[in-house]
UniProtKB/TrEMBL annotation:
SUPFAM superfamilies: S-adenosyl-L-methionine-dependent methyltransferases. This is Spermidine synthase. InterPro entries: SAM-dependent_MTases_sf. The keyword Metal-binding does not apply. It comes from Zhongshania marina.
Length: 232
């Protein structure tokens, strides 16, 4: 069996741990040091693609749409987003860890066919939460593939994204009928309640990690109504 070769390491801010990028043949893995183990594998990306497909389902023919992707990872969500939007669209991907961007510009980028090289892609190096707090841009869709979903593993500051305050900020950052799509490792009934309290119309989708097999992940789809009301 081909052994794993470590290609790089990265520190997660605020004592979030250490990421390790490894390669074995054509397979890549990003692991979190310690007991958590593997976070991403280049062979397992179906649910990330579905996240983008559901989140951008209405944008294929929308000229000049702007999509925000929170979390670069191995680039699969970004690549699927670019496939789902028009040639005139703009896709901003926010990534907290500089090394992850570097890895995606290197051999890892080939897995998702180098979406960072697409001229529609703009990289924001920093916390997507901070971007949402200060950004005056209105987005057609916001896709969050950050940490492990509402129950984060690696970066405690991600908790704000999924808090009531964070969801209300995201609501305001969306255009009317804009979509918030969130990847989660599992279902979370309390999070669904928070989404509805933030005035979103919510649907929940269960998706396999690989097509037809593998772990079951949850995709939350939350739409900002055309006319906002005080409650959902």
């Amino acid at each position: 069996m081909i052994p794993w070769k470590k290609l790089g390491i990265a520190q997660i801010p605020n004592n979030g741990g250490e990421l390790q990028l490894s390669q074995r043949g054509e397979e890549f893995s990003i692991r979190l040091s310690g007991v958590r183990g593997e976070l991403m594998n280049s062979r397992i990306f179906n649910s990330e693609q579905v996240l983008a497909e559901l989140g951008c389902a209405e944008l294929k023919d929308k000229a000049d749409a702007h999509v925000l992707v929170g979390g670069l990872g191995m680039g699969y969500t970004l690549a699927a987003t670019l496939e789902a939007v028009a040639s005139t669209a703009k896709v901003t991907v926010a990534e907290l860890i500089p090394e992850v961007v570097v890895w995606n510009k290197g051999p890892l980028g080939e897995c998702a066919k180098n979406p960072l090289q697409d001229p529609r892609t703009e990289v924001y190096l920093g916390d997507v939460a901070e971007l949402l707090k200060v950004e005056i841009e209105k987005y057609d869709a916001i896709l969050l593939d950050v940490d492990n979903g509402p129950e984060g593993l690696t970066h405690s500051d991600n908790n704000w994204l999924y808090s009531q305050s964070g969801l209300e900020t995201i609501f305001e950052a969306l255009k009317p009928e804009g979509i918030l799509a969130i990847w989660s490792a599992g279902a979370d009934s309390m999070f669904t309640i928070r989404l509805k309290k933030a005035r979103f119309k919510v649907s929940i989708h269960t998706v396999r990690a690989r097509v037809g097999k593998g772990s079951r992940h949850t995709i939350f789809i939350a739409q900002r109504p055309w006319r906002s009301t005080s409650s959902n």
